[in-house]
Amino acid sequence: MMRDRAGPSGAAVTVEPPATTDFDAIVVGAGPAGSAAALELARAGHSVALLERGPFPGSKNVYGGVVYGRVLDELIPDWFERAPVQRWITRRQTMLLSDERSLTVDFRSQNWGSAPYNGATTYRAEFDSWLADHAQQAGAVLVPSTVVTSLLRTSGGRVVGVRTDREQGDLTARVVIACDGVNSFLAKQAGLYPGEHAEHTTLGVKETLALPKETIDERFGVSGSDGVDIEILGGTGGVPGGGFVYTNHDTLSVGLVLGLPGLAKAGLRPEEILAELKRHPSIRPLVRGAELVEYSAHLIPEGGYRTMPRLVGDGLLVAGDAAAMCLAAGIWLEGVNFALGSGMYAGRAAARALAADDPKRLREYRTLLADSFVLADHRKLRNAPALVLSDRVQQRYPGLVCDLVEGMFTVENPAPKPGLRRLLRRSAKRNGVGLHQLARDALTGLRSFG
Amino acid sequence: MADSGSGPLVVVAMRWVDTHARVDALTGRVSTDARGAGPSEADRCALEHGLRIAQAAAGRCVAVSLAPEPATDMLRDALACGAHAVLRVDPGHAAGAGNTDDRADSGAATAQALAQAVRDELGHPDLVLTGDHSADRGTGATPAFLAAELGCAQALGLVELSYTDGHLVGLRRLDRGRRERLAIPLPAVCSVEPAGVRLRRANLRATLAARTATIPVVPSDPAALAAQPVAVRSVRPYRPRAKELPPPQGSDPRQRLLRLTGAHEEREPPRVVVTDDAGRAADELLDYLRGKGFLA
Description:
The complex is a heterodimer. By secondary structure, chain A is an alpha/beta fold. Chain A is 34% helix and 26% strand. Chain A has helices at 32-43, 72-75, 79-82, 124-138, 185-189, 213-220, 260-266, 270-279, 284-287, 336-356, 364-370, 373-380, 384-388, 391-409, 420-430, 435-449, and strands at residues 13-14, 23-28, 48-51, 66-67, 87-98, 101-108, 120-121, 141-143, 148-153, 159-164, 170-178, 201-210, 226-233, 241-247, 251-259, 291-301, 312-313, 316-318, 327-329, 332-334. Chain B is an alpha/beta fold. Chain B is built from nine helices and 13 strands. Chain B has helices spanning 41-56, 72-81, 100-105, 107-121, 142-150, 204-211, 222-226, 253-261, 278-291; strands at residues 9-13, 17-18, 22-23, 30-31, 37-38, 60-66, 85-90, 127-131, 153-164, 167-173, 179-184, 188-192, 217-219. Chain B has two domains: 9-18 and 32-225, 3-Layer(aba) Sandwich (Rossmann fold), CATH 3.40.50; 253-292, no CATH class.
């Protein structure tokens, strides 16, 4: 069987239980989850090391999306006045793409353009650094350019620290919080991931395209710090996934999220599919003349609730992408807020366990998550990822909907106008969708999203 | 580490720069980001040389930078790598001194501020090491100005530097593949190219200690800041040299002129292909290259 071979190390290192530890807690990864956890722990008065493999927090992250910051109200109450925001999202579109057609549901609300804001586009390099700064100011020790290669475990299986790629690189603590991102080697070393999960992982590819702010404002119909979030279904060259266009201050983030098995099967390169997306008649006018300033790619855990690992080990908590906390439910595509929430609750549970000197209280992490939006939303939408990434939703329904709408709006005088039922039957037949299947999917969707 | 304190004082002057700065192709505006900033590769080599020489000579290695507050992390890294001490000279904003960027443009002002701070805080250095030129302004003038300020010898653009039996020896690259080996008397200012050595990786214990260490800061000398930098008065477009042609044969001025200009000679007129079709443009180019015999 194919094993996960990439990464720092294959197995945890067995050590003697340390008499004293270097820190109360070690947080691995200074992304949103890691910094939130470190911030909670430091505020509770515990010594925390925040280890980051990049030269600064956010340097290794790829992000082209929207931060929903409501959860930050608990962590940093006046966050919206100080966070490095590119634009506040006041216009939200969901776009179905099929060959050279598209159907867009367009919603805008100026309520989202003032406090309390709904969502914002940010650059993760800025946002993560900003959040990590708060953790540092609270007392966490940030150690950048340091890769954690293994867990340190006692012969009894209790996690007591980590080994890094530096000389004299062992660091001990009473609690380790793994926020090491998708494909978490630490969670795997701890045996918290049951098996392979490539089929639940997508590849996100993104181009950052520079355009003058005035041009973006004009093309997207916004002004000031207002921004637009376009989520796209279809336009992925037949590979299960989706696309997106987000407005930043003077750049656009245009990208795709592609299922790994489908991408491998299609034998296509992601940048080719992205180039095709940019050539689509609905996208081309938005990106015309833009200068490519960055191309990046990153794996995303999109399996949702059903693919989450065990979140609590002996001396170890898992949060953020490492715990598959990304919500990919079609109309809702969120990740940073779940990372922030899970990191915050991991830090809170760890702080309580440390204060009580009772490692068993780490289990409260699961309870805190279950009582919050983090697991509530994931549990509620547990069937959504499979539905959204299904062959029908990905490849047939966009065509069906576009056929249906095209039939509705095509004027064929002197022929009389067809009825909606007839149009639906015709569109379903053209796109190989049975009406019974359509009804079943609608029911599944209703149960998931209802 | 050898015993430090009795040997020479080695000062490594490091410039804090954004090595991934973006330049707007149209306006020339340079965008920098403090998060990605740090020492250039040449400065990292200088620090490694400084650490090795201080160890070999049982001296002290001190990393110094004329830089704003965000450069603290760069100095922490130097401390973690083994520097005995660090010093940040804050450029500040003195009246009449212009902004930090203006002063940074001037190697003389930088050298004056650094030399003054080093003399005041550390004493007279035996050896000052720098990168051969900064990664942003890149004039390479600062080391020479530093040598002048400190009144010591200079050896610039070295690819090797070693301290053996009390002697400092460098190797400098010359034109046409030549090399010159230099015996460098102390006190001296040496600048090194980013070659030969690589800065050691700090161990975790030292890294942790450096993260919480206090980084001493001194304000730069107001007199140095007030020094007027060299100013660029005007920039002219690049003008290549005229191409030399052999004189035309013959004595008749008209014939000479015709030969010189190529008038009345058979030649293929130049063509400019303007098309939106990339495929057609490529075909045109390929046909041209085939016609000229560049492609089979």
